[in-house]
Amino acid sequence: MPAFVAIGRFLFSVIFIFSGASKLLDLTATAQSITDKVVLPAVLAGYTSQIEGATGMPMAQLLAIAAGALELIGGLLIAINFGARFFAILLIFFVVAATVYFHDFWNQTGAEAKGNMIQALKNLSIIGGLFIIAGIGRSPRLPEPVYTEPASHTF
Questions:
Q1: What H or E segment, with its residue span, contains residue 52?
Q2: What number of other Cβ atoms are within 10 A of residue 34's Cβ?
Q3: pTM of the predicted model, to two decimals?
Q4: Greatest CA span in the chain, whole angstroms?
């Protein structure tokens, strides 16, 4: 069974590795997608302008780098089973946020709503898988040993 868990963990992480690498390899498109969909609360405007000034990059580009790095690093570490529980929990929050901002089928109609509902349901399944990985942690739990009395021999 541990081999099945290891293979499943590796195959599960491929989506994050690929998605994170894709985001990082095309930061312009990723940042544009974030600009189109994500609206940061006005209360954060002071902080975001300070961060933009310190880095010299627009907030959308910083978020694109953060998202790509989280997916790529989290996916790789889940695949090799190092920090799997921690990164699974981080990715749960990430996938929830991505679903709310990018697959908001409740604000759409027609084919667009249906397509985004399917994507949201897929993300819900991914969140379920991440919960399983977070629950298993570094290795699968082994059953508790059962103690049995030695048989007595009467001669």
A1: helix 45-55
A2: 21
A3: 0.82
A4: 89
